[in-house]
Design a protein that fits this description.
5 helices; single chain; two-stranded antiparallel sheet; alpha+beta; three-stranded antiparallel β-sheet; about 150 residues
Length: about 150
């Protein structure tokens, strides 16, 4: 199985300091054509490969490098981003919905769900591809940063 697995990495200097929203736009474009190019099918389905992507920015990289691989609780993380996320919008005004609860802004988003979460680097595959196998599971598993979502 591993012989047929191809990891797709997008490394581009224009991504430096890019927002999650910009990266999601890039990923969405890629995910609409990739299934046909890679598998000969034109549907994304429930595959985590085309529904989520991982961001490893400086904070995440440092957390992984300083993490103890033998520790019971992992401190190293990556960002798991949900491709289908859209900000909650008030249909009457087309403005973002502010909930009754105040959340610290993350990339300017004050909603509870900011479209990404921290997950242990050694569980990203299990969380993104196995645990969240349908479109409603994001809400069930989501943990707002700085909290880290783990399978335990």
């Amino acid at each position: 199985m591993l012989e047929g697995f191809t990891l797709t990495v997008f490394e581009d200097p224009s991504f430096d300091k890019a927002t999650t929203a910009l990266l999601r736009t890039y990923f969405r474009k890629w995910a609409t054509i990739a299934p046909l190019q890679e598998q000969g099918v034109d549907t994304i389905g429930y595959s985590g490969r085309y529904r989520f992507f991982v961001i490893v920015e400086q904070e995440a990289l440092e957390s992984v490098l300083s993490s103890d691989p033998d520790a019971i609780t992992q401190t190293g993380f990556v960002r798991l981003v949900y491709r289908e996320w859209k900000p909650e919008v008030n249909e009457d005004s087309n403005e973002s919905v502010d909930s009754d609860k105040e959340f610290e802004p993350l990339e300017g988003c004050t909603q509870e769900d900011v479209s990404w979460m921290k997950v242990p680097y050694d569980e990203v595959q299990a969380i993104g591809a196995t645990e969240m196998c349908n479109t409603h599971d994001w809400d069930m598993y989501y943990a707002r940063p700085p909290e880290m979502q783990a399978l335990d």
